[in-house]
Structure formats: C-alpha cells, structure tokens
Amino acid sequence: MAVAERAGTGGEASQAGYHAQIKAENRARIIRAARDLFLARGYDKTSLAQIAKEARVSTGTLFKRYPTKAALFAAVTSEQWQLDVEYAAPPPPGDPRYGLDHIGRDYACLVSRPGTAALCRLIITELPQMPELADIVGTGFAIDRGPFFDRLRDYLEAEAEAGTLDFRSADEQRLSASEVAEQFLGMICSQFLWPQLVRTDFVPPNPTDAAIVDEAVALMLSRYGTGS
C-alpha cells in the first residue's frame, strides 16, 4: 500500500512538473511574440489574437494569463528590465565606491540589452494616444530605469545611514536618496541609452567599458562622499 502511494505521489509530482514546464514555455513564447509584434507594428495596431497566433498558443491560454493588451505590455516591459538573480540584492553598505561601481555596471548592461532602446522609443511615440500605457508608466515602469531604480535607492539610503554618503546640494539643501539615484542613473543612461532614442545610427559604447561608470562613480563620491 505504501509503495503504491509513493508511486502515485511520484507520478503526480512528475505530471505537475510537466505542466509547469509547459506554462513556462507558453509564457516565454507569448512575451517574445508580443515584444516582436509591438516593436514591428506598434502597440495600437497589435491585437491579442495576432500575438496568440505568433506565439502558437490558443487565445484562451493568452487571455487567461493576460486578459488585456495593457497587462501583456506591462509584462513585456517588466521582462526587459528584469535583473539577473545574482544581482537581485544591492551590495552591503560600507564601501560606496565598490557598491556604486557594482550597481553602475549592472545598469550599463541592463540599458544596453537588445530591444531596450526600441521599446523605450515605442513608449515615447505612442504614450500620448494610449492612456493605458500612461497607467503602466505611472505604476512603476520608467523608460530609463525600470525596477532597477528601487534597488539603487535602497542602497543609497543604507550608505547614508552608515555615514559614508551625505546627500546635500551645493546650497546645503538635503536631497533624498531618490533624487541622488536619478542623478547617478542619468549620468550612465545619457551615454548608453538616450542617444539611441534620437539617433538611429548611434552605436552605444560597450557596456563592459569601465570608463563611463568610473566617471559617474567618481563624480558621486566627490559630491556626496564623507570620507568615512
């Protein structure tokens, strides 16, 4: 009896694993098809039925996971900005040069991913006519940073609490960690991403080139470092 129960349990686990794999494969195909069609045809001219056909899934499968086009577009943008697992947590505070360098290099690689500039360009182009896109942008997706911003802000707050960074403006006004995070990401993004949005012939620097991130880190430390 016990042997039969174990066999049954093993079979159920195997079946559950198979179904989970199918779901993951379907999701990957849907996200890939949606991204490709959004970029090729635009958001407004792409339908969920077209995406289902391109992804080789039924419309029922697609609607069950993503009931609206806006929900699917949000998933596409989230996937584009997803951090690798090994970089999910910010570095520990105490050495802002190391921490900012570590985060800055991650960000340079993130904004240099294939498709990022095209996706940002799509949002800028269609945002005025598509209120549902405005809702997505307003609830956490920013075209130059995505969810990466929260990671950097939390790290900067930890460094400030540790006394290694002090966020004050030139006129001694207190700045928030969010404002400082904007400055740091802006210095990097202005070299890797923003030129691609206005110049289709722009060739971005290699994200592994240390010079751009090194300069951004040096400027941050010269302005906000306490020397502690």
Strand count: 0
Q: How large is the radius of gyration?
A: 22 Å
CATH topology tier name of the largest domain: Tetracycline Repressor, domain 2
Strand content: under 5%
How far apart the termini lie comes to 67 Å
Helix content: 55-70%
Mean pLDDT: 83
Structural class: mainly alpha
Helices and strands, with pairings:
Elements: H1 2-41, H2 48-55, H3 59-65, H4 69-80, H5 96-111, H6 116-126, H7 131-138, H8 148-162, H9 177-192, H10 194-198, H11 210-224
Helix pairs in contact: 1-2, 1-4, 2-3, 5-8, 5-9, 5-11, 8-9, 9-11
How is this structure best described in words?
The protein has 228 residues and is mainly α. It has two domains: 78 residues, Tetracycline Repressor, domain 2 (Orthogonal Bundle), CATH 1.10.357; 141 residues, Tetracycline Repressor, domain 2 (Orthogonal Bundle), CATH 1.10.357.10. Helix content is 67%, strand content 0%. Helix 5 crosses helix 9 and helix 5 packs across helix 11. The radius of gyration is 22 Å and the shape is globular.
Characteristics:
mainly alpha; Tetracycline Repressor, domain 2; 11 helices; 67% helix; 0% strand
Task: Please summarize what this structure is.
This protein is mainly α and 228 residues long.
